[in-house]
Specification:
- Residues 2-200 form the ABC transporter domain.
- The chain has 200 residues and is α/β, with parallel strands linked by helices.
- The protein has a single domain (2-199), classed as 3-Layer(aba) Sandwich (Rossmann fold).
- It contains 5 helices and 9 strands; from the N terminus they run βββαββαααβαβββ.
- Bound molecules: adenosine-5'-triphosphate and magnesium ion (MG).
- Adenosine-5'-triphosphate is lined by residues 11, 16, 34, 36-42, 71.
Length: 200
């Protein structure tokens, strides 16, 4: 469970989040929609701990293992796809069998044939899927996913939703997306507008 109380975020004079109070229940999927610039990424960054709220609190168990797939790519163009996963495995101190899992994720997401390619040679959609594979590789109980299907065609988007439905089972997921999130993920649908979250 993650509890947000009166979370506000200002950048200079502009108030982006205007006092958000919500509870994220363990194991549920939350779909956050809202116009461009409404603060979806800002809210995810606060949940991920990358940004601090101007005021208000975010409370979560210290033992939560959280993974974040950002909207803007955090990738190294000279490093291969595989070495990105290797780096993540090292950062999270993953033990044996992570390679098997990494191969499976790449296959499920449809980018296994790019395993040895430097990221600089990948398309936007291929980078998007790598960013997701990196977030999905380690064990986690919270997944924060920012626009997981942007840059993707219908078939690749479907591969992503299928992979998330399987890999995300039992995890709390917060997904910001302009594209509709399939009903089979049974998301709680929220709209972020004017700095507040409305349940749809
Ligand atoms: N570091 C920052 N400094 C100043 N303003 C910022 C900063 N980060 C975001 N903003 C502003 O906050 C607003 C919300 O941005 P955010 O990226 O959260 O929107 P979003 O809902 O994710 O949009 P999109 O759908 O386009 O991804 C924008 O107007 C943006 O310009
Ligand atoms: Mg955004």
């Amino acid at each position: 469970m993650i509890v947000l109380q009166e979370v506000r975020k200002r950048y200079g004079e502009r108030e982006i989040l205007s006092g958000i109070t919500v509870t994220l229940e363990t194991g549920r999927v939350y779909a956050i929609a809202g116009p461009s610039g409404s603060g979806k990424t800002t809210l995810l960054q606060i949940l991920a701990g990358y940004e601090h709220p101007t005021s208000g609190t975010v409370q979560a168990r210290k033992t939560l293992r959280l993974e974040y797939a950002p909207q803007d790519f955090l990738l190294f163009s000279n490093l291969t796809v595989w070495n990105h996963l290797r780096l993540k495995a090292a950062a999270r101190r993953l033990q044996e069998r992570w390679e098997e899992r990494a191969h499976r994720l790449l296959a499920d997401l449809g980018i296994a044939n790019h395993c040895r390619a430097p990221v600089g040679t990948l398309s936007g959609g291929e980078r998007r899927r790598l960013q997701l594979a990196i977030a999905l590789l380690p064990p986690s109980n919270v997944l924060l996913l920012d626009e997981p299907t942007s840059n993707l065609d219908a078939i690749a988007s479907e591969q992503v939703w299928e992979t998330l439905a399987r890999e995300g089972a039992g995890k709390t997921m917060v997904i910001c997306s302009h594209a509709p999130i399939p009903a089979r993920l049974e998301p709680v649908r929220w709209q972020l507008r004017g700095g507040v979250l409305d349940v749809e």
